[in-house]
Design a protein that fits this description.
globular, mainly alpha
């Protein structure tokens, strides 16, 4: 909404977000459907997305109020799940404990760079954050990034990659002009062959042969950020192939499966975001 200048709708949606999810210094990542109780933990990537949206709105409307809100929310997040150069997965407001891991996808580098540019100390933190992500590179043969970094063992994770999260890491790098050529070439090849699978081992073997429309939308966003509009169009063509064209369907117009009337919000939201890229 902030990107598409739906200003009134954005303000209303943000107020609802605060009403239902605000924990004071961060946002709870979910509410229990039955009890309506907020989870005690956040998902730091969601907080950073909200902060980015606030800053986009502030820039679009020249709103000092929302600029201050964005800066305040970031400063509060630095007291919970962002510790110097560490962007931790979550903070528990009840136990006052943080995650021992940092998912590399959670490093929203453009947002971190914007808010950590006010002092030399914070610029140093940002450079260390960027270095942590870049050093998670798995190699030119399989040019994606490790899923996370464990601060207890001081090692990168070796569990299978969730491709959506892996592509979000690449997107964050592309947004600041740091995507590797090898990664771009690999992603072009997957789009050409229509073989962007949902999970890989860190060695590059396919761990899950299913595919997701959302991943092709993420690929399109990556291509757009890097100025590769030929492959942006190719990826978007694959995205729209999943759009339901049957006007009698309950999910007409959505991206989904007409057999089960399944339309996942993740895929549809990413397609909408990609279409604005």
């Amino acid at each position: 909404m902030a990107q598409t200048h739906q200003n009134k709708a954005f303000r209303e949606f943000y107020q609802h977000t605060k009403k239902y999810f605000d924990q004071g210094r961060q946002f709870s990542y979910r509410i229990d459907d039955k009890t309506k109780k907020k989870s005690d933990v956040n998902a730091t990537i969601d907080d950073l997305r909200i902060i980015r949206a606030l800053q986009i709105y502030a820039q679009n409307t020249n709103s000092e109020k929302y600029r201050r809100e964005a800066a305040k929310r970031f400063a509060m997040l630095q007291t919970t799940s962002i510790h110097k150069d560490r962007v931790l997965d979550f903070y528990d407001v009840r136990t006052k404990k943080t995650s021992n891991k940092s998912s590399l996808a959670y490093y929203d580098l453009a947002t971190l760079k914007y808010f950590e540019s006010v002092s030399k100390k914070e610029r140093d933190y940002y450079q260390k954050q960027l270095k942590l992500v870049k050093q998670g590179y798995l190699g030119d043969i399989f040019p994606l990034y490790a899923p996370n970094y464990n601060w207890k063992t001081n090692q990168y994770g070796t569990e299978n990659l969730n491709t959506s999260e892996a592509l979000i890491t690449v997107l964050h790098l592309a947004e600041i002009g740091k995507m590797k050529t090898e990664t771009a070439n690999w992603l072009e090849m997957q789009v050409d062959n229509k073989k962007l699978y949902n999970s890989y081992t860190t060695a590059g073997a396919i761990a899950d042969h299913s595919q997701s429309t959302g991943n092709y939308a993420l690929a399109a966003m990556i291509f757009a950020r890097s100025g590769n509009y030929k492959y942006y169009q190719k990826a978007m063509k694959l995205v729209w192939e999943d759009q339901v064209q049957n006007k009698k369907s309950e999910i007409y117009g959505a991206l989904g499966d007409t057999k089960n009337n399944d339309a996942y919000s993740f895929n549809n939201l990413l397609a909408l975001l990609a279409s604005q890229s």
